[in-house]
């Protein structure tokens, strides 16, 4: 019997090393390198083929036009918002990873999805964290049909795949990947090596048998997926279910998708009957008070393949501190500092002795640059204690020279705003529509000074 091989892997970046060391030389993280045993692989006989050994399947070389795409049609999950994030539905043979905070609703969403899909296809729900009685109790509480959903309580990956070969499901849920283990790997479930090898084994099984597999993953304190970085590399689609405990709304955001757009957003509402999809997310993020207050403004951002109207709020107040505070929720703090410098240089507004607080209502996280002009408008509105028009939207990127730069999909943003009853829009001059939009006045600006004049 040959000696078992060992390897040392960084849990942050997935880099491999021949021996243990305190710091990862790739990502520079400390104490993230752990040892795991490499599973033994049965070698092929001398002079023979590799077929039938170590799961190796003989393949043939093809040109792309010879590949048959008709045999892999997408199928719907039963939720339009879920399908949107996946890129139009579930692709057979794909490996999907869903992460989220405890209590966000990952298991609830997948249980609802599997019960709906069980009415029309073969499904298998594998639970490793709960008993079958607990799963059945939750399904009964949610009022879901349970007579066709096949369930299994198991944590051994090889046993799960052997049973799946007999059941032949079209889609299978693994809840969760952190409690799964393989017999050849000696470390405990949840370790870097177990998560890595279990996910790789399940992904190979999905590709070879055209079974769509959805794996549930835990998240770390900073909100990223737990486990080795290679876990995100081997799967096809990575999704995060986000939502605060004081809000009943949940957002499903795609971080990686080989079959659709990245950063697509789906919105759900948590109710007593489980998660309900929200078909018009802009309506819930625009639930404002009757009285318009200074520092509040609506902007149009682009999430995935659709526009989204959200409210941005700013509060500028005199600071008693030597170093005034700069606090952002839902926006990048470094970008706020840059925009304050642009506002001082090209807008003539000095806020060095002011505390600045910025918040995007509804818990939406904005990463695109189209929020620049709206953020500056909200800051000036709060500083001057001057309320802006209630039926006005603003979007545009602000450059370091004070110029207002265009953003993608300008006309779609304006149409979405007009659909919700907004009458006026401040946009970059390059985004001015050729044809007038019914019921909306569009003001095009080329510089920050032009924008401030149009706003105030």
TrEMBL record:
<comment type="function">
    <text>Plays a role in repairing double-strand DNA breaks, probably involving stabilizing or processing branched DNA or blocked replication forks.</text>
</comment>
<dbReference type="Pfam" id="PF13481">
    <property type="entry name" value="AAA_25"/>
</dbReference>
<dbReference type="GO" id="GO:0008270">
    <property type="term" value="F:zinc ion binding"/>
</dbReference>
<dbReference type="GO" id="GO:0003684">
    <property type="term" value="F:damaged DNA binding"/>
</dbReference>
<comment type="similarity">
    <text>Belongs to the RecA family. RadA subfamily.</text>
</comment>
<dbReference type="GO" id="GO:0005829">
    <property type="term" value="C:cytosol"/>
</dbReference>
<dbReference type="Pfam" id="PF18073">
    <property type="entry name" value="Zn_ribbon_LapB"/>
</dbReference>
<keyword id="KW-0862">Zinc</keyword>
<keyword id="KW-0547">Nucleotide-binding</keyword>
<dbReference type="GO" id="GO:0005524">
    <property type="term" value="F:ATP binding"/>
</dbReference>
<keyword id="KW-0346">Stress response</keyword>
<protein>
    <recommendedName>
        <fullName>DNA repair protein RadA</fullName>
    </recommendedName>
</protein>
<keyword id="KW-0238">DNA-binding</keyword>
<keyword id="KW-0067">ATP-binding</keyword>
<keyword id="KW-0234">DNA repair</keyword>
<feature type="binding site">
    <location>
        <begin position="100"/>
        <end position="107"/>
    </location>
    <ligand>
        <name>ATP</name>
    </ligand>
</feature>
<keyword id="KW-0863">Zinc-finger</keyword>
<keyword id="KW-0227">DNA damage</keyword>
<keyword id="KW-0479">Metal-binding</keyword>
<dbReference type="InterPro" id="IPR027417">
    <property type="entry name" value="P-loop_NTPase"/>
</dbReference>
<feature type="short sequence motif" description="RadA KNRFG motif">
    <location>
        <begin position="256"/>
        <end position="260"/>
    </location>
</feature>
<feature type="region of interest" description="Lon-protease-like">
    <location>
        <begin position="355"/>
        <end position="456"/>
    </location>
</feature>
<dbReference type="GO" id="GO:0140664">
    <property type="term" value="F:ATP-dependent DNA damage sensor activity"/>
</dbReference>
<dbReference type="InterPro" id="IPR003593">
    <property type="entry name" value="AAA+_ATPase"/>
</dbReference>
<comment type="function">
    <text>DNA-dependent ATPase involved in processing of recombination intermediates, plays a role in repairing DNA breaks. Stimulates the branch migration of RecA-mediated strand transfer reactions, allowing the 3' invading strand to extend heteroduplex DNA faster. Binds ssDNA in the presence of ADP but not other nucleotides, has ATPase activity that is stimulated by ssDNA and various branched DNA structures, but inhibited by SSB. Does not have RecA's homology-searching function.</text>
</comment>
<dbReference type="GO" id="GO:0016787">
    <property type="term" value="F:hydrolase activity"/>
</dbReference>
<feature type="domain" description="RecA family profile 1">
    <location>
        <begin position="71"/>
        <end position="219"/>
    </location>
</feature>
<dbReference type="Pfam" id="PF13541">
    <property type="entry name" value="ChlI"/>
</dbReference>
<keyword id="KW-0378">Hydrolase</keyword>
<dbReference type="InterPro" id="IPR041166">
    <property type="entry name" value="Rubredoxin_2"/>
</dbReference>
<dbReference type="InterPro" id="IPR020588">
    <property type="entry name" value="RecA_ATP-bd"/>
</dbReference>
<dbReference type="InterPro" id="IPR014721">
    <property type="entry name" value="Ribsml_uS5_D2-typ_fold_subgr"/>
</dbReference>
<dbReference type="GO" id="GO:0000725">
    <property type="term" value="P:recombinational repair"/>
</dbReference>
<dbReference type="InterPro" id="IPR020568">
    <property type="entry name" value="Ribosomal_Su5_D2-typ_SF"/>
</dbReference>
<dbReference type="InterPro" id="IPR004504">
    <property type="entry name" value="DNA_repair_RadA"/>
</dbReference>
